[in-house]
């Protein structure tokens, strides 16, 4: 993932002190991600890069660690989240096609 999506993030004008926070301030930082058009790309970037600090894609470092632990077999979060987006946009047709194949 090359990061070209970064200029489209809703947080692009936020300061680091707003995104790299601890405790309850993380909940405020996560609200910046609500409705962001590149939320999935941002989250995939953080998961694939094993970024340990800050809020990325609406998830805190603790939430990302837990997700990585639960889904330890995922090799590319970028591919997984893109496939999920395509499936969602197609109304589940991709899943139906795979089941009949």
UniProtKB/TrEMBL annotation:
For molecular function, the Gene Ontology terms on record are: 4 iron, 4 sulfur cluster binding; dinitrosyl-iron complex binding; DNA binding; metal ion binding; protein-disulfide reductase [NAD(P)H] activity
Extract the coiled-coil ranges from the record: none
Q: Which residues form the 4Fe-4S Wbl-type domain?
A: 10-66
Its domain of life? Answer: Bacteria
Q: Which UniProt keywords apply?
A: 4Fe-4S, Cytoplasm, Disulfide bond, DNA-binding, Iron, Iron-sulfur, Metal-binding, Transcription, Transcription regulation
What does the record give as the function of this protein? Answer: Acts as a transcriptional regulator. Probably redox-responsive. The apo- but not holo-form probably binds DNA.
Give the note describing cofactor binding and stoichiometry: Binds 1 [4Fe-4S] cluster per subunit. Following nitrosylation of the [4Fe-4S] cluster binds 1 [4Fe-8(NO)] cluster per subunit.
What cofactors does this protein use? Answer: [4Fe-4S] cluster
Pfam families reported in the protein's UniProt record: Whib (PF02467)
The GO annotation for biological process reads: cell redox homeostasis; negative regulation of DNA-templated transcription
**Cellular localisation:** Cytoplasm
User: What name appears for this protein in its UniProt entry?
Assistant: Transcriptional regulator WhiB
Q: Where does [4Fe-4S] cluster bind?
A: 11, 33, 36, 42
Which GO CC annotations does the UniProt entry carry?
cytoplasm
As for PTM, the annotation reads: The Fe-S cluster can be nitrosylated by nitric oxide (NO).
Primary location recorded for the protein, binned into one broad class: cytoplasm
């Amino acid at each position: 993932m090359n990061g070209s999506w970064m200029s489209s993030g809703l947080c692009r004008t936020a300061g680091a002190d707003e995104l790299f926070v601890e405790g309850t301030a993380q909940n405020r930082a996560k609200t910046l991600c609500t409705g962001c058009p590149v939320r999935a790309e941002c989250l995939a970037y953080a998961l694939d890069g094993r970024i340990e600090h800050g809020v990325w894609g609406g998830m805190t470092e603790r939430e990302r660690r837990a997700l990585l632990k639960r889904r330890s077999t995922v090799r590319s979060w970028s591919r997984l989240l893109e496939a999920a987006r395509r499936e969602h946009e197609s109304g589940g047709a991709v899943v139906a096609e795979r089941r009949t194949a």
